[in-house]
Amino acid sequence: MNFKVFMHFISRGAEAILYKKNDFLIKKRISKGYRIKELDNKLRKERTIREIKLLVESKRNGVCVPTVIEKDLKNFKIVMEFVDGDVLRDVLDKLTKKRLNMICKNIGESITKMHNAGIIHGDLTTSNMVLKNDHVYFIDFGLGKVSDKIEEKAVDLHLLKCALISKHNKIWDIIFKKIIESYSAKGKEKILKRLEEIEKRGRYAER
What we know:
By secondary structure, this protein is α+β, with helices and mostly antiparallel strands. The chain has helices at residues 37-60, 88-91, 97-116, 150-167, 172-182, 188-206; strands at residues 8-12, 16-21, 24-29, 68-72, 77-81, 86-87, 119-120, 129-132, 135-138, 145-146. The relative contact order is 0.12.
């Protein structure tokens, strides 16, 4: 597949550049000039492989994520399906109560599937969720990892809660409550207890 022409630049983040071509999204991990070249290449390759595995495993466990089409480890690229929908951050506050409840249920159930499979997203924000045909697609697993630790799952939820407070401060509590109601990962009580502990640590640190 030749992606050298007719590619449209989408965005550049700290770790990668995103391009779009037709129905494909191309994610290329960028070089860090401050790192030794050999180490830089090693890290970019490892992180590209890890993200591919997280996407494939998430999809295998029933989570809506972009389908991986092709990998180019030599150039640190992932070619995947472009999910043509609305970034949830931009529309969540405008949804009807009925639709909002449905979307929150969808999110809670999807996070459950990830956590039960030992998948930690690492950056659960509504900026990394796309709403398409009433399904929430999870994108950007660049900070993700594989872990069955209670702490990691609680941190995932903590990051989501913080993001909701920041981006949807008028209705964040309703949204988070609905998500947690449909979140049923193994060890849920322990995870939520650890979430409370993480929040207490945060408040203590602020003092």
